Amino acid sequence: MLDLGRFERVIAVGVSDSWSPAREHHSSGLEIHRALRCLPPRSDCSGALHKLARSFAFTISLARFFCTAVSTARVARPEYVTCHNPTLLPLGWCIAHLVGGKLSYSPHELEVSKTGLGPIERKLVQFFEWCFARHAKSIVTVCEPIAIHYRERYSVPTYVVRSIPSVCVGSPPAMASERMRELKSSSGSGLVFIYQGGLSRHRGVEYLLSAFQSEQVFHSIAFMGYGESERLIRAATKHCNRVGLLPALPLTQALGASVLADVGLFVIPGTVSQSYELCLPNKFFEYMRAGIPIIASDNLALLSRIIKAHRLGWVVKGEDLPNFLREFRPEMLTEIRPHVVSFAESNTWAVEREILLAAYP
Question: How do 158-160 and 138-141 pair as beta strands?
């Protein structure tokens, strides 16, 4: 946003644990204001009491976040208030009215069909979007199918800004480079596959972990990111030297680590939500920028169509991944890599930059 030259200041408001500063200036120029998260006490109390304590801690954290967001806006008087989370749209709308600003809504996926939402949460998302998204100055989505969803429901200018990296490929930390070299030497084929992003069972991470630990699969896999499945991955690294875990890295370093891999992965078995069917994730463009082909499951409909149309990798049925990996050979990469390079060269941030600028008139 700062690189656009449209705004003098960009402030992100969030929550943090005790080890993060309340105020921070990122090297990009971004200002970060954090509300301290209230953590539930560690105790051996019953499940019901522990759940109550967690709910209370969450409520306090949310209240602190609201106060931090409002106080920050009253001082900064922003021209635009951007919400990425639909449940925060009421707060964003209130702040925009309080300071005389404009509301912009930037859902990263099809929020009403987001994976993991319960019936009540889904109804709340629908309600908040219906009440407040229609009052936004602009809606920014990451792909055309999701943009169509919002255009059909609200008379709000809606833009598609794909999540193409705007930075150059940098050098990964020595630790990451060393781990990737170890995985390559441990691989029976010399190939390292990589999954980067949220480490969640909803994204097929545990399925990938199981597939690569099969005795019939000789390739290595690196997971890069953080999330609920970290614990399982760490446990697997102790008894399988073909499984590695890299921490979440700044984007330039993450791209540098991806360059050291051979194939990117986004495979989810079974039935997925409509949000996943229509997703165009960050990791896809990060794999392309790193110059590595991708394997995706056919239930990721939009992603599969793009991969097939541009010959950027392989589309498999999620449940068939272990069989596909058993037959995968290094020479299969030779034909695909030139198409990946060509796609990356013709899909750059320069075009998306102009669209993003138009979304903030």
Answer: parallel
| Domain extents in the chain | 2-166+353-358, 174-346
E strand map for the chain:
11-16, 23-25, 31-36, 80-83, 102-105, 138-141, 158-160, 192-196, 220-224, 243-246, 263-266, 294-297, 313-316
Give the C-alpha separation, 361 to 357, whole Å: 7
Written as six digits, the tokens of 87 are: 């449940």
Closest CA to 212 of 178, 181, 245, 179: 245
Biggest CA-to-CA distance, the chain: 62
Q: Is 230 strand, coil or helix?
A: helix
- What Å distances lie between residue 222 and 54, 65, 242, CA to CA? 33, 35, 8
Q: Which CATH architecture has domain 174-346?
A: 3-Layer(aba) Sandwich (3.40)
Summarised one tens digit per residue, pLDDT across range 304-331 is: 999 999 999 999 999 999 999 999 999 9
pTM, rounded to two decimals: 0.90
